[in-house]
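Problem 12. The chain below contains 288 residues. Write out its predicted structure in token notation.
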Amino acid sequence: MKTVSNVYNLHILTCLSTSTSNFVKETPSKKYAVITVFSENHACEAMHACRTYSYVSEIQTGKIAVIAFYAADVTNKTISKYTELCPFVRLRPISLKQYPKYVSDLKNYRFKFLIVKEVLQEFDAILYGDSSVRLEPGATTETLTDLFKSMKTTFARQGIRMFTYASHYNYPVTHPLMYKYFHVPVEKMKKTVQLQATVFMVSNTESGHNVIDKVAKCAIEENCMAPKGAKVQCPFPEYTQNTKVVCHRFDQSAVNMRLIELYGTNLHLYYQESQLLNIVRMKTCSMP
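Solution.
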């Protein structure tokens, strides 16, 4: 996994100029899917990401589906542009009306695992990626199908595979109220590096649902995932010192607690990087 913050990847931008006219439009099988989400302020970033999907052979042939959920603030103009650039992506509006009103605040990240839980019922396994996640088939011999196959082998028992980790431990970025919902001792949170919920893979199996169903339940509990007073901004260097709680990582903290609750502190049971995935977060963005 390569992480690039706030800069353009020149190689990717060169690829973005390539036409997608040769893309084969077929009806994807109900086996695997790539899922992503974007709002209007991340739409440009999402378009750059989705263009990289078109260079993946399994997506070109329709073997693997791509579904993008868009927020209520995304304009018709943006939807038209996205469809023009990435015609192979199935677009769906984010629908959270069936949940308590506080779930609709996207800044609390409650939506992510609710969407994952909903869509997972349609496929054997899904790869979730934020709008910043790009696919780089030219960077490795590993294929997207290989990643999905790992959910039937290496990660079959766990039902989930995380791909990247943060630069801090779990403890300083997890609100104390979270311990009411997840039975994880503070000592384990202090000794584990936090895995990022930016991109992960989950299988439609008992073990996969055993992870995400409780995280999704946490998302609709008012004081779980986004407890009152929780703040995402983490002061430096305090959040790196692992001595006190200074901020909260919402869905990321929740899924880490669930993984530790189920499988303990050996992160390699549910984490393995892949060079096929690349995170490119853009502070400024020009439409492709």
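Discussion. The two ends are 24 Å apart (CA to CA). Students who got a different answer should revisit the alignment rule from Section 12.3.
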